[in-house]
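Record type: ASSEMBLY
Status: queued
Input:
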Amino acid sequence: MKILVALKQVPARDSLLRIDASGRWLDESDLSFEINEPDAYALEAALQLKEQHGGEVVVLSAGPERAVSAIREALAKGADRAIHVEQENLGEFDTLSLAKLLAAAASSEKADLILTGLQSDDLGSGQTGVIMAELLGLPHATIIMAVEASGQGVRVKRELEAGWFQHVSMPLPAVLTIQSGINKLRYATLMGIKKAKTKEVRKLTAAELGVQPESSVSLLRIYQPKRVKQTQMLAGAPAEQAAQLVEKLKFEARVI
Amino acid sequence: MSQLKGGEFLLRAAKMEDVFSPEDFTDEHRAIARATEEFWDNEVAPQLEEIQHQNHDAAVRVLRKSAELGLTGVVVPEQWGGMEMDMISAMIVAEVLGRDGSYAAWHGAHAGIGTLPLALFGTEVLKKKYLKRLVSAEFVGAYALTEPHAGSDALAAKTRADLAPDGAHYVMNGSKMWITNAGKADIFTVFAKVNGEQDKFTAFIVERAWPGVKVGAEEKKMGIKGSSTCAVYFDNVKVPVENVLGEVGRGHVIAFNILNVGRLKLGPFAVGGSKQVLAQSIKYAKERQAFGGPIARFGMIRHKLAEMAIRIFAAESVAYRAAGDVERFGDHLKGAEEYAVECSYVKVLASEVLDFVVDEGVQVHGGYGYHQDYFVERAYRDSRINRIFEGTNEINRLLATGMLLKRAKRGQLALVEGVKKLQDELMSATGPVDSDVAANAKKIALFALGLAYQRFRDQIEDQQEVLAGITECAMNAYAMESVSVRRCKLASTGKAAAAQDVCDVYLDEAMNVVEQSARSVLAASSEGDALRVNLAILRRLAKREQVNVIGARQRIASKLLESGRYLF
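Status: finished
Output:
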């Protein structure tokens, strides 16, 4: 099975996030970067499928030059080769443009399966995988908890709301967007890191792919959420108070 | 001119490209750091409580898991299951694993002193027998040099190995003390004298399973309580002759060379531990409220945090500089021998920085820092051993200057010419000498060394305080230059301002130490008018523009508090 994993490099979770002078993105001078978390799970799912059924895992990433360290990490973990669509300031363009770049790069690969995270930890639009599927004319399924090969297709488990799951059998080729935490991520071994240096990373540009990135959607401003603290006193008998509390936790705070 | 030779930093200025620093890490180095950090967070950190309470099985499990990643054989050739990577990679791994003193001991005793003697000196037969299984951590390794009555004077060891009449094996008798990993070790590198003869100090590979090998009870230590430390006894142990490591009578070469590498590696272990304590102290200073706000707003707390970061920067700069020199030398063992003086500086500086950092860390935590619920309490106890093992800091201070003199005698270092040139220069000039503070510190070290040697000649070896005073000058000068060069490297980055502040404060403080130490060396080496002239020269060399160190520390502290961790 030939599996393509589309992954994005995002600011590391433990970074100090500062908004830059434009007010539209983060100050990157002091940031460290990592593989977007759901994408890391997509990569792991792909590596496990390869271990079970053989084949090839190809990493696909669009981003600036620095994204190559995320690509190398994926190669160190066991991906066979990679395609890097090198493009600065992708954040200034819309998700459609990004998906066009990825789809154009993916189309010649004719992969059986394209996996990607369900959303990115930085912008979090949750659209890239789905639009890519549409552009490639492939079926897709989102929020995937498990993938298993079955016959000529795959059987997947989707996460629905309120603890419900949906099991879907679908044909290949297909695009799946993977949920975080569905498997145990492997470490990049030192030997893997060493070997990653010799694996192929093909560089492509938007021009070579015939894609002109656009921005039909523009990001006006980003800001730190304001910390607000409110105290509400609940009245009534203990049982009534408890009921009200549960109500609020469920529907206002949405934590249970 | 090319790379500086060992000890040559005293005579020549280092060029930026000759001084390795973390800024020179390759992508591969950074990937190794990230993989090791991930391993730390997911596999080591959750086991630390267990390890701390002497669950040695847990420690060995983690060690074996780390072997799957390749962390136990970073520099070992691939042929033997290792990663065949450079010294810098091994330093990076050590720095991450140094976050906890106990686990660092497990790792260091196994992958460092427990494996490297075999990897570097073993015959093919011996390597085939043990090396792969050590690298995979199927066997746990340990290094047995110290004895109850032979610590710093390791060659006074009493353990002996007598060649049996059949000529096929030795019979080993004796005991070893303070053996790290002993509780779980399968393989010991043991030093003993063949037939009890002084000039036949020899290393052997000894299996724990052999009849007559007995491991004593766990020692009750002040710190690194999660490590295993026991005595090991040898009672008529039959050791096959092929288990001799290296040559009979050449054990001291192995012992001292391994120590050189060990001293270098202590650098990243201590730096890793220090960074962890700094991060915890920053966190606590932000959380702890006093007088209506966090204590992080107080100047004296900020001073402590900044000072920790400044000294960590110095230890880190020195450790990676020396590692870079050893790596570029080609052969790690010969490299560590060439730069043995610098390796001693790394050991002394880094262990003392760690001690400073844990001490101030406890102080930032106040009463809570004295409580076992807080990480910093443990770090405080764990730190202390670093000034003792791998050669006490006293031994290293004596050795460092002793080795400089030895190198000069052997014609490996133009020390005499350097001193003469400096003396001529000092006699002919009267004004301020040089605006480069680090360069002046080197001149002070050389000046003090020259005077002391002229006064004591070959009896200088008996003048321990004088030797240590010279080491203090030279070691600080080395650190000052390392910090200064690294500041230049950072000049075009976003960290330029912070590096400038760190460098300004460090140079100022280190120069105080250099001046103070030199003064006592000069006073022991000259008197009367000569002393007065010498002190005037010293004052001229130590003269510098006073920077606003309080302001610089304040700026550093602000950045530390914002980022929550070490800055570089």
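Annotation: Chain A is about 30% helix and 25% strand.
Annotation: Chain A has a mean pLDDT of 94.
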